[in-house]
Amino acid sequence: MRKSFLSGVLAAFATAMAASAPLQVSALHPLMADLARQVGGDRVKVVDLVGEGGNPHRFEPRPDDLARMQASALVLAAGKGLEPYLNRLHDSLQGVRVVEVGSSIPSLTLARDGDGDGAAGTPDPHWWHGVENMRRAARVVALALADKDPAGKTDFLANAQTYGARLELMQRWATSELAKVPRSQRKLVTAHNAFAYFAKEFDFTVIAVAGLNAEQNNTPQALAKTIEAVKRSRVKAIFPEYKANAKVLESIAAASATTLAAPLIADGNGSGQDAGFEAMFRHNVQSITQALAAP
Ligand SMILES: [Zn+2]
Fold it and tell me: What is the third-level CATH fold of 182-292?
């Protein structure tokens, strides 16, 4: 009796603690921050280090970022090689657990150097374009949060399940939307070769065309090759990257008699109404359907 009274008091105390001091979680990718919010609810305080609209490929933690991570209970990284600085981070963060959320998700391998921002033969880091992968990741985050806040375990798992059910509905919506795209047009020619996981899940082919990256220098020869590859693919439209300079793509589209579609969001770096996984995913599905669906 006394014991149950005591555990009741402790539980109430833990709840009060959780209410007054949420678990601080830092994220090295805007979509990992989104996952932490979805799963953690009001039991967590999420620090999105890259920030809305930021590019997780280019992010390098500065001293004030390190201080914020050091003050966190948990740091969430995307993993699969996206954050090349993780080893150094492990060394400088004392006793803060860094979870690579994508590490247990099956990898696709990069076919060529520079595809998906890595070397040939290494894992493609863009696993967040698979809806199935994000459902799995929600559970990974739930268990990582529960490890630091055991009293919240039931909540975290329930939130992950609710979120997963919502994603399942979104996946069905996407399948029926994308069914409007005829088989011959199920090809994604993109500025940033980030959509292999999406292509696998929704039965598209990614046309690996060199020279479509925003930062890449395009020689006239490389450009001619790109135009040739786009023509060969017989696609109606090519996809610029969100917020990237579309000038090179405009000339490729003009020379290959294709059109430029609405930009795709590759790295969860949409802002405003395009921020977060669900908004990014819906935006991309709509852009692809509008550009490639049968008239
Ligand atoms: Zn990327």
Answer: Rossmann fold (3.40.50)
